[in-house]
């Protein structure tokens, strides 16, 4: 658990401005990342229908299978890109991941079978795993520590708005063209490499020949507990997005909402709320000078809105349902703050590994949440199945409790100097 200072170097790492090329590229990269990441949830029903899957149960089951493939790719990619980020540099991961998910999404527009769809979602997931962690690490290491929270706030606020563009493109141009456009946006980003430089902290660690990017070093003693806490903070967000919002039509039916509920609109309103939530959580952590208090407040709000989603919407109108989706999205708008905290917990030689694996393992928790959700839904209680409402309540409460514990027992990192390495 003890930390050590980096070996002596000739100069301090270079810092940059709040609206530098580094922040702009990281923000736009995350914008395209979110567009591609959330696009499947928006076009799930239409794309599966076009591929011949029309039965309601089959659409749900195949949709969950494809989500699991994408998330499994993100688990693999999180480890791959995280290690590369600490061994080869933040920039190589930032642009390498953009290239991979862009090509995969263009190919996704040509699929004709479920198997093709599944393998391309896996490959796209691997690519999507790298951008956020590399971007947040690069921004955190190049901005002055007093402005670090504002920088990651900008990255998140711009980034999550990519989901709204995904909804509009998916509705206006069809699901195949939506994949083509997403891939094209990613490839266009590669032209912005000019003006983006590598992290000075990484260059110092590289010159000092410190061991970097050893993923297995995270599994030793107190460091493992610190790492697990980082992972657990992000689980409630992906419970909300991966279960409650992705399956909004099914929840709408179970709640007898007075009209059909569109998964695309639910995603749109949730991510619209996320835009404001990411801005608010980042700004709040700076104003309060505390990452922990900001995260705790947002987790408490999230619990209240999950309860409202599951128990206060019975017989409501679709409009009321979407309003709850918007506010629920706001309450889980601590995503970039969560990644920032993960990056701030570890030294330069493991920072990219943690900042890249943590959000992807949190996203990948959907792989575990989905079977748990299905199992709980079928669980017999007093001779009746718990159903999706009861399963959502149990799973939501559990994810929030472990996340709140993780935040409450972590050290505060606001204003922390990141120019150090982990003793290995």
UniProtKB/TrEMBL annotation:
Compartment(s): Membrane
Swiss-Prot/TrEMBL keywords: Membrane, Transmembrane, Transmembrane helix
Record GO terms (molecular function): carboxylic acid transmembrane transporter activity
Any Pfam family matching the protein: MFS_1
GO cellular component annotations of the record: plasma membrane
Family annotation (SUPFAM superfamilies): MFS general substrate transporter (SSF103473)
Keyword Metal-binding assigned: no
Entry-linked InterPro entries: MFS (IPR011701), MFS_dom (IPR020846), MFS_trans_sf (IPR036259)
Name of the protein this chain belongs to: MFS transporter
């Amino acid at each position: 658990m003890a930390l050590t200072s980096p070996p002596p170097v000739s100069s301090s790492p270079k810092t940059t401005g709040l609206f530098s090329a580094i922040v702009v590229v990281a923000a736009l990269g995350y914008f395209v990342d979110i567009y591609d990441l959330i696009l499947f949830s928006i076009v799930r029903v239409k794309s599966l229908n076009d591929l011949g899957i029309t039965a309601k149960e089959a659409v749900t089951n195949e949709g969950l299978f494809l989500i699991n493939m994408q998330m499994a790719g993100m688990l693999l990619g999180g480890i791959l890109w995280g290690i590369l980020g600490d061994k080869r540099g933040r920039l190589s991961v930032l642009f390498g991941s953009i290239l991979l998910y862009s090509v995969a999404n263009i190919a996704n527009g040509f699929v004709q079978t479920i198997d093709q769809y599944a393998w391309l979602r896996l490959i796209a997931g691997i690519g999507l795993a790298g951008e956020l962690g590399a971007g947040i690490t690069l921004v955190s290491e190049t901005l002055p520590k007093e402005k670090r929270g504002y920088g990651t706030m900008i990255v998140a606020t711009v980034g999550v708005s990519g989901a709204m563009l995904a909804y509009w493109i998916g509705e206006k141009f069809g699901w195949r063209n939506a994949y083509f456009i997403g891939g094209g946006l990613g490839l266009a980003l590669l032209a912005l490499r000019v003006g983006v430089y590598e992290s000075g902290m990484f260059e110092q660690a590289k010159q000092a020949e410190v061991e970097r990017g050893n993923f297995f070093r995270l599994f030793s003693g107190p460091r493992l507990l610190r790492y697990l806490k980082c992972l657990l903070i992000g689980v409630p967000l992906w419970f909300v997005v991966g279960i409650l919002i992705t399956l909004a039509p099914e929840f709408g039916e179970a709640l007898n909402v007075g009209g059909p509920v569109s998964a695309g609109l639910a995603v749109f309103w949730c991510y619209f709320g996320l835009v404001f939530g990411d801005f608010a959580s980042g700004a709040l952590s700076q104003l309060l000078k505390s990452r922990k208090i900001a995260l705790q407040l947002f987790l408490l709000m999230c619990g209240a809105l999950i309860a409202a989603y599951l128990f206060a919407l019975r017989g409501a109108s679709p409009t009321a349902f979407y309003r709850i989706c918007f506010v629920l999205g706001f309450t889980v708008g601590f995503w970039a703050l969560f990644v920032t905290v993960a990056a701030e917990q570890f030294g330069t030689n493991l920072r990219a590994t943690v900042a890249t694996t943590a959000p992807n393992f949190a996203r990948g928790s959907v792989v575990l949440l989905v079977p748990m959700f299905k199992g709980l839904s079928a669980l017999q209680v007093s001779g009746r199945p718990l159903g999706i409402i009861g399963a959502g309540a149990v799973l939501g409460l559990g994810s929030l409790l472990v996340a709140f514990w993780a935040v409450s027992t972590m050290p505060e990192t606001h204003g922390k100097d990141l120019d150090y390495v982990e003793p290995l």
